[in-house]
Amino acid sequence: xxxxxxRPRRSxxxxxxxxxxxxxxxxxxxxxxxxxxxxxxxxPDAKPAARGNACAAVASGEYGHRELVxxxxxxxxxxxxxxxxxACAAGPDAIAVPKVSSAQAVxxxxxxxERYGAPASTTLWAMVExxxxxxxxxxxxxxxxxxxxxxxxxxxxxxxxxxxxxxxRAPVQTGLQLCLLAARAxxxxxxxxxxxxxxxxxxxxAECQQGREWGFDGKTLIHPGQIAPANAxxxxxxxxxxxxxxxxxxxEEGKGRGVVTYKNKMIENLxxxxxxxALEMHEAITALEAQA
Length: 292
Prior knowledge:
Layout: E1 11-16, H1 20-25, E2 33-37, H2 47-60, E3 67-71, H3 80-90, E4 94-97, H4 103-115, E5 123-128, H5 131-135, H6 137-141, E6 147-152, H7 154-160, H8 173-186, E7 189-192, H9 201-214, E8 218-221, H10 227-233, H11 238-253, E9 260-262, E10 265-267, H12 269-291
Parallel strand pairs: 1-2, 1-8, 2-3, 3-4, 4-5, 5-6, 6-7, 7-8
Antiparallel strand pairs: 9-10
Helix pairs in contact: 2-3, 11-12
């Protein structure tokens, strides 16, 4: 089994690109990905400098195995075109765009990436964070092969719904699950939204666990202290890895028999596929950590 088809995205940290000290520290952080932010975390007068910092960071080659993504300003802003032009020239692993609410927006963004000469290896991450995006999630997710990841923008979604942030996230569960369904139907990865209370470790861990149980690939983060809990939550546990190996061994041993069991439970093809995915995740994470 190889890990070429799976890229860990357990922890993807937003990094304000106007903060050069933070950009330097990020080179040693054990996150799977970094979102160099040109949008919410950057004041209007600092955006040109932040754009240059983000592109320089991507080109530096100093961030090791981490997936590097530039989040540009939205399509309806005065900074968007310059952000896209610069990001495409820098050639990050991906370009993330906020408030993508339609399939046409995806097609327009892909056309922009092609117009500005983005390398073929640079994919598009679409942030979905509005009610209309929830209702059109599958159309967005399936609009282009170049779109590789959906990113939940839960803060904006809560605002748009006139809702509140509460434990368990009942006000946004429907939207989260609609986007999960869309991502899986379209064969795309999907990242859970941020958790705002950086001092509430128990609350953050509970939300990571919830996201993992629902099926998210990982979580976007706003503080380095959230990296370790996210990495733990979105990786297969030691028990899960052991069980996956046991299921595959039992399946191989039982070929040709009518019924295959593992720990007194019947094993079917669906269990085998889940076991293979767990091991693929484990092997990819192990390889990634060996590079750190």
